[in-house]
Every structure is written in structure tokens, then in C-alpha cells.
Specification:
Helix content: 25-40%
Low-confidence stretches: 464-482, 485-492
Mean pLDDT: 91
Shape: globular
Distance between the termini: 29 Å
CATH superfamily of the largest domain: Metal-dependent hydrolases
């Protein structure tokens, strides 16, 4: 028996779905970056060089996998004018003024010394639309351009608008809207693609800036127990440069410790003619770095619609109020209908995982229709349980009840940003007034998607491939797939995965898990509303934790049956692990948010704590 490199003891271990609904008091041994043993007493594995990690009553779990994140963008904001710690117009004014004072113009005229960053909340301003005049009062000379937290809009001062040539006679772009004053002149808020008009003239981050941002994002993510992520946009996007080279630079330098899937950007101004280019890029990347690289280009990101708060989410019925009387009364489908069907069918046939942004119920339905068309055209029923195509829909704010069971039917994973599933100022002041109470009751139906009793892709595989499905006490989410009598792992198509969408929201998974379980923000949060948002859609702590670990690992190609397995604690799995300061299962659900990460390991190497 070899001696362990790492030995975890003195706490509890949550092993993952199908391995117990609560943690157990066992020990874990790690050898050569993999889990070598899990048992009640592993003292025989202890040798003179073994590093013993005393969990001190805390919990060891698989490292978190953030299934939807913008890390370089988040890192740039942390290194730029970062407004994420503010919550009011007064906070933002102070933070901007402080940044301007600490970062005076260097080597150029002040009128060309841009201030860029972001992180402001729409709820801090009437109608969610801060004005250029407010920014001018803080900084009248230097151009200022700041994305909001959801990155579906931006705030610009008059100097930035002038440099972009935005005036009363500037038409709205096809995929966005310029907020205007009564005389038609730009008000200062730019929605969706309109933000790109300023982004195109703002100074782009340099390669060194982006490299520093990646390393900062990685450090920050590891501090929360995150060991892997799916970068939701890799490619040229609204003036932002393609970040693939940044990842490759970190990989070559031996500094990329996080395991990454990059989702290549789908240019919504084009169609399926771009698929061969995406395939060529993926194949060239894989040929050079190898399919087992820590940075893989196996997914494509499609932004199907916008967001509700600015009227660009694609809805089945018109918005209420002025938004419902606008040029786009049901929002904007950036990629919808037949265009989305064609895109999904082509990407699926080319072997890509499709990662689709959907907020409105029409966007969700369009996407599910597209996957249904692909399932028929590309004969999904004959695919192996561990087929590499891991399709998922991100955000899912509004899902029509008729579409809930279709996730299970199609084997498409719901990628949840659970921190948003609560009542708070933006929900009450900007969202609900635009959709009304009936549609507001269809938001973030995570529990319904998880527990829907519908014929699933597993049933099709049972018929077509001779696959046996063994259900556990917790149901289909924990079902074990066996092929030729051999366990291939837990349900190869998890219903849920999870991500933060950072820098839109905090990357701390425990905050999102708290809301997934409670459907409220923590009681000590300044935006806490005691009224739960659709309490029947709450998940259990185990279900939420499974989504953020095993579910997200699966869509990143690291699930049961894959060559490398993460997201679970079992013998043979990669030792991507995180430790907490407590056992969150032992406390009340109201205290989940207080859980703190105290240690993070990637392939058995400590990267935090």
C-alpha cells in the first residue's frame, strides 16, 4: 500500500450525488493527484511525507465547478473601477471619484484618459437608467464607461458618448437600445448592443492587462473553493478581445491551475456558415494542446435574448407598460426561431456542447424546440450515455409550465444562477412591474425541472442501447447507469448545473446555494426581503451542492464515464477538493451563507488556504 500524499481527517465528507444525502465522518487519502481511498480509518495510509489536513469539524467536498462565468472580465473589473461593493448612487459616486483620484491620467491628455470598469446595480437608479449628467458631475473631462452588474447595459458620461459619436440622430443598433432624453439625445444608459458603440472606441485591455486579470480571477475563485469553470464567452465580443491567448499564456507558464472549458462565441450577426470556422478552431486547439488539456474549446455560447429589466428578454406575451408598446413589445430574440434551430442542429452535428443564454420564456421555448429538432435530425437516442455533447441552457428566469418537463425529455441540463432566485429591489421595482404577477410565478423553477416526472433520454437509451438504469432513493437525479453490467456512473444527464455569471454576481457558491435552498437572501443582507420567491421551487442543500459540483463537472466533460472525473469524492476521481469551516448540513438552512471556504486543492495541490 502506498503512503498518501494528502490525508484528510477530523471532519465530515460530502461525496456527491448517489453517495449519501448527508456527509459522513470518513477520511480521504490522495495519491498522485487522485483520490486513493475513502474510509472510516485510513491510518495505514499515513507515512512520513504525508500531509495531514485536519478539517477541524468542517466539511470536505468536491471542488466547485462554475458552469457560467466571465473570469477575465471579472478580473479586469477588480483591477479597474470596481463598483461591485456599492449599492446606491451615492456609493458609486464615491467609488468613481476615489478611483479617478488614485488613478490620474498618465502619458495622455485627460480627455483621452478613460475610466472603465463596472458593477453598478440597476436598482440604485430610477428606472434602472443612470444618466450621463450624474457621471459628468463626478468626472466631466475624462471619458467614463461602466458596465452594469448583469453586463446587459452600460453607463457612459458625455465625454464617452461624444467620442463614440452617439447623438440624437444615431440609430439604435439592431441588438440594442440607446436610452434617450425627450429631445432624442442620449441619456447615458446603453442597453445590450448599444453598449458596443462605446466599447468600440474605449481603449481595449492589453494582453498584459488580461493576463493579470485572469490570474486575479483564478486567485479569487480558488478562495471560494472553485477548481474549474466554463468561461461563457471566448472570442471577439462587443469590442472585447478573444481571451483564448490569455489562457494559453497561463497554461504555457504553468500558472493555469483552474480547469477550463471555453465556450466559443456565436456571432449572432452570422449564421451556420461560421460552424466550419468554429470546428477548425477547436480541432487546431485540441491538436496542439491535446484533448486532456486544462483549457478546452468544446462548447459554443449562443446569446438567444437579453434581460427583462431593459425589455430585451424574449417573452411569449407582451411586456406590461411602456415596454409592451415599444418597437419590440415581446422583447428581442437575438437568435431565435429557425435561426436557432439551424444553429443548434449544426453545432450538435459538429460535436459541440451548446451553451445558450435564455432569460425569457419565449427564448427558453425556442431553445428547447431547437434541441428537439436536433434530437430528431441527429438521432440522439442512439448516443452513448456519456456522449461528449453536454447541452445546457443558462439563466432560465422565466420558464412556461408547459416547458418544464422538456429538459428531462431531451436530456438538456438547466444551468442555474441561483443567487437571482429571490425577492430584492431589482425584482420588485424593475422585473415584476414589466411582467405581472402571473408570469412572475414562473421564475427560476429549479425544483420543478429537477423533479419533473417525464420520459427522459435515459428511457430512450434503455430501449436502444441495452442500458440498465438503477434508481436510488432520491430518484432519477441520482440514477446509476450500467452498460454491459458495468457502472458508467451517476445519471449521465444531470438536470441541474450551476454557475455565478460573475462579475454579474458574487462567485461565492455558498451565497448562491443559500438562495437555492431558502429562496431568499440572507437575513443580514441589506437587500434581504423576508418573502420567499416561490418556496416550492427551493432545492435541498444536497441538490444545490450536487448541481454546483457533479452537475457542472459533467457539462465540462468531467463526469462519470469521462476520462477524467471531478465533482465527486470516490476512488479514482481527480482530487479537486474544497474544505469548509463547518458542516453546513448540521446547521439551519438560514445559516448556509455563513459557510466559508478554508482550503482548496487542484489535483491534490493546495491552491488556497
Amino acid at each position: 500500500m502506498p503512503h498518501a500524499d494528502l490525508l484528510f481527517l477530523g471532519g465530515v465528507v460530502y461525496a456527491g450525488p448517489g453517495r449519501g444525502a448527508v456527509p459522513s465522518a470518513v477520511q480521504v487519502a490522495v495519491v498522485d493527484g487522485r483520490i486513493a481511498a475513502v474510509d472510516a480509518d485510513l491510518s495505514a495510509w499515513r507515512g512520513p511525507a504525508t500531509e495531514v489536513v485536519d478539517l477541524a469539524g468542517g466539511m470536505l467536498h468536491a471542488g466547485f465547478v462554475d458552469a457560467h462565468i466571465h473570469p477575465i472580465q471579472g478580473g479586469l473589473e477588480r483591477l479597474g473601477c470596481d463598483l461591485s461593493e456599492g449599492s446606491s448612487a451615492e456609493d458609486y459616486a464615491r467609488l468613481i471619484a476615489d478611483f479617478a483620484q488614485l488613478n490620474p491620467p498618465r502619458g495622455c491628455d485627460a480627455s483621452r484618459a478613460w475610466i472603465t470598469g463596472g458593477g453598478w446595480a440597476m436598482s440604485a437608479f430610477a428606472g434602472g437608467t443612470p444618466s450621463a449628467a450624474e457621471l459628468d458631475a463626478i468626472e466631466p473631462i475624462r471619458p467614463v464607461f461602466l458596465y452594469n452588474r448583469d453586463h446587459h447595459g452600460a453607463w457612459a458620461n458625455s465625454a464617452a458618448l461624444a467620442l463614440a459619436g452617439i447623438a440624437a440622430d444615431t440609430p439604435d443598433p439592431a441588438d440594442g437600445r440607446i436610452e434617450r432624453l425627450p429631445d432624442g439625445s442620449p441619456q447615458g444608459t446603453l442597453h445590450e448592443g448599444a453598449a458596443g458603440l462605446v466599447a468600440a472606441v474605449a481603449p481595449a485591455a492589453t494582453p498584459d492587462d488580461e493576463y493579470a486579470a485572469l490570474l486575479e480571477a483564478q486567485r479569487y475563485a480558488h478562495s471560494f473553493g472553485i477548481t474549474a469553470w466554463q468561461d461563457a464567452i471566448v472570442g471577439d465580443y462587443f469590442g472585447a478581445s478573444d481571451t483564448a491567448l490569455v489562457y494559453r499564456r497561463a497554461l504555457a507558464a504553468g500558472r493555469l491551475t483552474v480547469d477550463v472549458v471555453g465556450a466559443l462565441w456565436w456571432d449572432r450577426a452570422r449564421g451556420v456558415e461560421q460552424v466550419p470556422e468554429l470546428v477548425a478552431r477547436r480541432e487546431a486547439h485540441s491538436a496542439e494542446l491535446g484533448p486532456a488539456s486544462r483549457f478546452r474549446l468544446s462548447a459554443v455560447k449562443i446569446m438567444a435574448d437579453g434581460v427583462v429589466e431593459n425589455g430585451t428578454a424574449a417573452m411569449l406575451e407582451p411586456y406590461l407598460g411602456a415596454a409592451g408598446e415599444s418597437e419590440h413589445p415581446t422583447g428581442i430574440a437575438f437568435v431565435g426561431g429557425q435561426a436557432l434551430v439551424d444553429a443548434i442542429m449544426a453545432l450538435d452535428a459538429a460535436g459541440f456542447s451548446a451553451h445558450v443564454h435564455v432569460i425569457g420564456d419565449r427564448a427558453v421555448r425556442d431553445a428547447l424546440d431547437a434541441f428537439a429538432a436536433a434530437a430528431s435530425a441527429n438521432d440522439w437516442a442512439t448516443r452513448a450515455p456519456t456522449d461528449a455533447r453536454r447541452h445546457h441552457l443558462a439563466h432560465l428566469q422565466f420558464v412556461h409550465p408547459d416547458d418544464v418537463a422538456r429538459f428531462a425529455e431531451l436530456g438538456v441540463t438547466a444551468n442555474m444562477q441561483a443567487l437571482w432566485a429571490c425577492n430584492e429591489p431589482q425584482m420588485r421595482e424593475l422585473t415584476v412591474p414589466l411582467v405581472g404577477a402571473e408570469r412572475a410565478a414562473t421564475q427560476y423553477p429549479f425544483a420543478s425541472i429537477l423533479r419533473a416526472s417525464a420520459p427522459s433520454r435515459l428511457d430512450q437509451m434503455t430501449e436502444n442501447l441495452g442500458v440498465e438504469v438503477e434508481f436510488t432513493a432520491r430518484g432519477r437525479q441520482d440514477s446509476v447507469i450500467r452498460q454491459d453490467g458495468r457502472p458508467v456512473g451517476v445519471d449521465a444527464r444531470p438536470r441541474l448545473c450551476a454557475g455565478s455569471d460573475w462579475p454579474v454576481s458574487t462567485p461565492d457558491p455558498w451565497q448562491a446555494i443559500h438562495v437555492a435552498v431558502n429562496r431568499t437572501l440572507p437575513a443580514d443582507d441589506p437587500e434581504h426581503d423576508p418573502e420567499t420567491l416561490l418556496a416550492h421551487e427551493a432545492l435541498t442543500l444536497a441538490e444545490a451542492l450536487d448541481a454546483y459540483t457533479a452537475g457542472s463537472a459533467f457539462i465540462n466533460g468531467r463526469g462519470p464515464g469521462d476520462a477524467e472525473v471531478t465533482g465527486i469524492i470516490e476512488v479514482g476521481a481527480v482530487a479537486d477538493l474544497a474544505a469548509t469551516d463547518r458542516d453546513p448540513f448540521a446547521g439551519t438552512v438560514a445559516s448556509i451563507h455563513a459557510t466559508r471556504n478554508v482550503g482548496t486543492w487542484v489535483a491534490g495541490r493546495r491552491v488556497f488556504g
